[in-house]
Structures are given as structure tokens and as C-alpha cells.
Amino acid sequence: MNKKDLLDLCWKEFKPIVTNLGFILDDIEYVKEPKGNVLRVYIDKDQGTINIDDCEKSSKVISDKLDEIDPIDEQYYLEVSSPGIDRPFKNNRDYSKNIGNLVIVKFYAPVDGEKEIIGKLIDFNDESITLERKDKTSNYERKKIATIRLSIF
Description:
The protein has 153 residues and is α+β, with helices and mostly antiparallel strands. The chain is built from three helices and eight strands; from the N terminus they run αββαβαβββββ. Strands 7-6-5-4-8 form a five-stranded antiparallel beta sheet. The protein has a three-stranded mixed beta sheet with strand order 1-2-3.
């Protein structure tokens, strides 16, 4: 099974399981690392943060489902974790969750002479984000943004 088909199957099979546990299936990746192949499943919550017990509970049911459907022929490791506080935003839920927070935005090319900015995320839509910086509100096109993540400083 190719990687895209594997990830599609995992999304289809894991999403209802994770949702039933009260979590959100945030992302899935299958990567080759020095220790071997890793199927990494990221879970999140609408409110609060994911803890080790949440990961352990999810890992058990996901592992049981993997044993049942057996989609991977080679040896691999299963990891279930939270997305992490400093990861780039991947979807609109990440933007929604961070309204009112300071974010770091990196652009593909300089915008108004700046390649990276920090500001408070005020709003967003499919085309742009609104940031407040130094008591000034500005809009930035999402297509010009290389990465955006929560500022942890």
C-alpha cells in the first residue's frame, strides 16, 4: 500500500475511534526515522491539553484497530502524541484556537519589508489573517504565509 493510501485509510479508521474517546484526530504521518518506520498519530482537545493518559488510552484502541486491519507490511512503531505547542498551524481549527494569542508569522518573501513578524491573531478567513501589532491592525494574505505558529516567548 502506498503512503497516501495508508494515510487515507488511517484517517478513515482512526477518526471515529479518537472522536469516541472525546479527542480530535489532528494529524497522521508515516515517516522513516533512524529507529525505523513510525506511524505517528496526533490527537488534540477543543479545551485543555492532551496528557500522557490521553495518549495511552488512544494508543491502545488505535493499536487494536491496526492489528485488525493490518495495513502495514513492514515493521513500524506507533506513536500517539499531542501536536505540540510550537508546531505550525495546519488547519482552521488551529487558527480558531489561537485567536487572541501572540503568533509568529514567517512569509515566503518579505511583506512590507519583513520576512517574519509577531502579532496578536485577531481574526482569519480562507484568504487572510488579521494581526494586531503595536496598536495597529493589519491583514496578511494566507497564500504569502510560509508558517504560522503560537509564540511561546
